[in-house]
Fold each of these.
Amino acid sequence: MKCINCGGTMRYDVEKQGLVCDFCGAVKPLEKAEQQTDQVERSFDASLSQASTDWGITRRQITCKQCGAALLYDADQISGMCPYCGSAIVLDAVETNSCIAPTGIIPFTTTKEEVEKNYYKWNKFALWSPESFRKGKVLGNLVGVYVPFWTFDADTVTSYAGDFGTTVTRGDSQVTEYRKGSGVTEAFIDDVCIGASKRFVSNKKMNRVVQFKPSEIMPYTPEALAGFAAEKYSIDINEAWTLAQDTFKKRIERAACKRENAEFCRNMQMSTNFGNVKFRYFLFPVWLAACPYKGKIYYVVASGHDNRGLCDRPVSAAKIVLLILAILGVFSIPFISYVIMMLISILGQT
């Protein structure tokens, strides 16, 4: 992004919630969500064949030689740091618009400084970690990256048959009674979210950190991306739709339970027709860092959207040993006292 005042490079500033010129300091505020009117959901039938590949700004795709992450950077950026492994990367001259452009984005609102403060708060009560790690300056350089996600909506019509259960009281206990049920249920299922990164699809820390409301997804604007890397999706729309259908199934089962006035269901057989399927491809902001400590790397994942965050930590063997000895000591006192009393009793009888 170029400044209209001086032609300098403008980058997204988290604190100012807008673009800031590196040279003259001019600020261009980011358009607020309530001012945006573009529809960010697209018809699934159009999918990749008609989906736009225009990101609004030219991006360079690089693959980190160290960890294999595929990342998209600003076209005018010539070097950077991989957010996943912390290795330095030099960008080549290859530009790309070959992948589908996002339709939505949640911009960074949590600054790097806020995450740094939170990191030492998170470690404050990690008493099992070495003191030099908990209180030392071990936090690596935080790198902001946008992680890709898909969401899906659909109208569903499902024929079902199965066992439906309700909880009943029998004497002093509660049991679940099941009965056969079948029928047809219609349900509109909204905002089924699927991670588009194979790197994070099963990452428990990432899944706990990424929390948002669908209403917080703004229509994509390239201004929010200026100065940040974005991971290219490694789970395409068709694979994501297959994964989403497992979540759809669970919601349809709940709709069938509601129709049958039941609390539980089992042995379900369902046939579902999906209609009016829509999707969003959006980007979520994440701060990542690698903390080197005694030859190992401990990773930090923090939301760029709120104050959630998690980190790996080493365990102090000395502290664990002392804790075990302390526990054994506490529980050994009654046993030792019992043995002494028994010995006194025996000696008294001789």
Amino acid sequence: MIRRVLRVFLASLLSGTAGAAPLSVPGIITHGSRAAPSVALTFDADMTPGMQRALKSSKVLSYDNVAVRQILRLTRTPATFFFTGMWAETYPQSARDIAHDPLFEVEDHSYDHPGFAQPCYGLANITDRDKAANVLRSQLAVARITGRTPRYFRFPGGCASLEDVQLVQHLGLTTVHWDVISGDAGQPDAQVIVRTVLRDTRNGSIIVMHSHGGRAPSTALALPAIIAGLKARGFTFVTVEQLLTAR
């Protein structure tokens, strides 16, 4: 079945023209309803072959930022995690732990975090021929490990062509990006992250953060102040599914 799906979508990919898809392109969801003060905290769990090599060589001890979900649980804050399939395979117990917590939902972030459109923040290239297989491989890995089948997809770096968005739709997934960039990637100062999120969040916002540590070293440090600050402004936290159901 997978081979048949790949053949169908490969033909449509090769007939299209590449081009970066702006966040306003139909098919990319960046926020929920602006009518209600509900917001979605989302956390990308990235993993690349290079990150795996860093783990194996002990240059990095872990790409599982356990403190993020501990804080979410302590504050009873719902959140959505976008797993790369490779991350779920590297940390299967953590992936299952997140997926089976009713506070959280798990979605798809590609298999090994390539840039579907280039340039893309230094992410590895992926050929058109391999894109459908990459998405499906991640879907299968996440479903096999967690027992949960993702419904939403987030492109690594938010980089995608119009054809990429259409491909994801044909594969039965909805593309969900964001309207608030926390800036936690590569940011050592937690207060910068806090100020950015509190400044930019509005009704219906989808906030992008990271849960793998490493290249996002201050996410957990910023999270308590973000949660407290947004609650003080009257915002309610929901999962992406809950946010979009209320659209």
